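stage 2 :: seqdesign
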């Protein structure tokens, strides 16, 4: 069992926390690229719902960038909650109005509520959370020939 602040990534200056930030930043860049590529090559439904999932994956990467010590479940849950909050905010007229005046607002807030988006955000959170957990296990697994520290 790890003691908080002793190599488990619970302290922001912990080496594990410092190493995950570049990976999270890279994941954010790759996710944006994947979203743009998906819009360029995919049909309407695939681009839309794939983009919804990638939106939550991007939020997950940003959460990990800001809070590298959080567990994959907590980071994915936070990204999912934020995605759902933005979607539910679209039930008001505010996002649509802001989106009419700003491309950035349209990309971040969207404009109209669509219930199936809630499912696809959950898919993105689940996939992103699993990838985040797998990367964490990979970082903690000693390389071949390395001797584990006791």
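stage 2 :: out
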């Amino acid at each position: 069992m790890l003691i908080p602040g002793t190599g488990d990534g619970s302290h922001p200056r912990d080496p594990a926390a410092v190493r995950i930030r570049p990976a999270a930043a890279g994941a954010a860049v790759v996710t944006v690229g994947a979203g743009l590529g998906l819009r360029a090559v995919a049909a309407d439904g695939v681009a839309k719902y794939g983009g919804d999932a990638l939106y939550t994956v991007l939020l997950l990467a940003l959460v990990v960038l800001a809070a590298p010590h959080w567990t994959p479940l907590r980071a994915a849950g936070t990204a999912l909650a934020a995605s759902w909050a933005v979607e539910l905010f679209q039930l008001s007229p505010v996002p649509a109005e802001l989106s009419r005046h700003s491309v950035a607002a349209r990309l971040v807030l969207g404009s109209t509520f669509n219930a199936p988006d809630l499912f696809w955000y959950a898919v993105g959170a689940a996939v992103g959370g699993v990838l985040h957990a797998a990367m964490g296990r990979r970082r903690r697994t000693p390389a071949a020939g390395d001797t584990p520290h006791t």
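stage 3 :: structure notes
- The chain has six helices and no strands.
- The radius of gyration is 18 Å.
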